[in-house]
Amino acid sequence: MIQLTPEETNAIATLRRLATRWPKGLWLFAASGNLCVMRAGKHGEHLMTDGGGVDSDYQITNIDIPNDGGDW
User: What are the CA-CA distances from residue 13 to residues 7, 10, 39 (Å)?
Assistant: First the structure.
């Protein structure tokens, strides 16, 4: 089992609390190491370009948390 520091444990707890109140009109997109806050569509959908990619026009800001958008 991985042992966490108190700071790491608190950071995870903070993210879990945030997840319970995260607005439906926003979503997170990990792109090339950037954690982007994106605007969602009227029905909570991810807004895409005609070519099928995430539409960067709906990017609100980046959050400086290390991340990777890859798959397992």
Answer: 10, 5, 25
Is 10 part of a structural domain of the chain?
no
Q: Is residue 13 part of a domain?
A: no
Pairing of strands 26-31, 34-39: antiparallel
- Please give the model's pTM, rounded to 2 decimal places: 0.84
Burial class (CB in 10 A: 0-12, 13-18, 19+), 51: exposed
pLDDT tens-digit profile, the chain (72 residues) = 999 999 999 999 999 999 999 999 999 999 888 999 999 999 999 999 999 999 999 999 999 999 987 777
Number of domains composing the chain = 1
